[in-house]
Amino acid sequence: MASIYKRTLKSGTVTWQARYFDRERHAHYQNFPRKIDAQRWIDQQTADQVTGVWIDPKRTRGTVAAEAAAWIDAHPDWSQKTRERNENIVKVHIAPRWGSVALGDVTTEAIQEWISGYELAPATVHKIGNVLSGILGHAVIANRLVVNPAKGVSYPRAEPRRRRYLSVGQVEDLARAAGPWGDVIHVLAYCGLRWGEFAALKVEDIDLGRRRLRVDESVTNVSMGMAWGLPKGRTSRTVAYPSFLDRAMRDRTAGKKPEDLLFPGERGGPLRNASARGSWFDAAAKAAGVEGLTPHELRHTAASLAVAAGADVKVIQGMLGHKSAAMTLDVYSDLFDADLDQVADRMEAMRAAAMRPTRRRRGIRRS
Question: Which residue positions does the secretion signal occupy (predicted)?
Answer without folding.
Answer: none
